[in-house]
């Protein structure tokens, strides 16, 4: 049994680096859990890739001789609007969201440099390449329209979707219920494909589960209220309970070889299905 620290999920994908360096090579199954507003053995976490878009123009006085400038802010705004228009033709479960990180220096100087950061998300890693191709046309057409140069820089690691293992999920849920967990039946929660994690990449190499657990608060993740709730004393009870459920699931796998075989068989079949889907021609929106 290995307890493995996996830092930098949200900025770089630390588990992917560990994966590439052989950190999971000797493992048969891998478990982790993530806090939320409810207990859930599985939520449909999606594939994701970060991208930074940089536009390079030419500075000039915005009032005296604007015709001498090449406006990088215009390129950034066009990029933003291009992506907003693209949403009309995107699949309902695709997501593109971002910010303008740098928009210029002074109002009387035509911006020579602007920078945007976007997250691109799709339910599967196969669909992600299709969305990236469409988004790139938005990035580059804005440069053509304004006369700017453009750099498109993707993050080193792209996050894969979670590859489900229902055998492990069922085991975890049985163990959790024996400890008093009340798993959500809210379809809006269970079908909300929104978040992403580098654990998805791990599940394409080793069978695994990524359940969510209640910490005693209905505050939403990534808010100040949730930060406070996660540090509250009562959150520790729920966290330890989740750790016990994971440990009990690990014992099930360790002590019952037929279960491990079933887990591995399901993993092989799920991975094969994903690979077959990836080879199919993408349907145009």
Automatic annotation (TrEMBL):
The protein, known as? Peptidase M20 domain-containing protein 2-like
Q: Which SUPFAM superfamilies match?
A: Bacterial exopeptidase dimerisation domain, Zn-dependent exopeptidases
Chain ranges of the Peptidase M20 dimerisation domain: 51-144
Mind giving the lineage of the organism this protein is from? Answer: Eukaryota, Metazoa, Chordata, Craniata, Vertebrata
MF terms per GO, please? dipeptidase activity
The record's listing under InterPro entries reads: Bact_exopeptidase_dim_dom, Peptidase_M20/M20A_hydrolases, Peptidase_M20_dimer
Highest taxon of the source?
A: Eukaryota
Provide the family line.
Belongs to the peptidase M20A family.
Under the heading Pfam families, the entry gives: M20_dimer (PF07687)
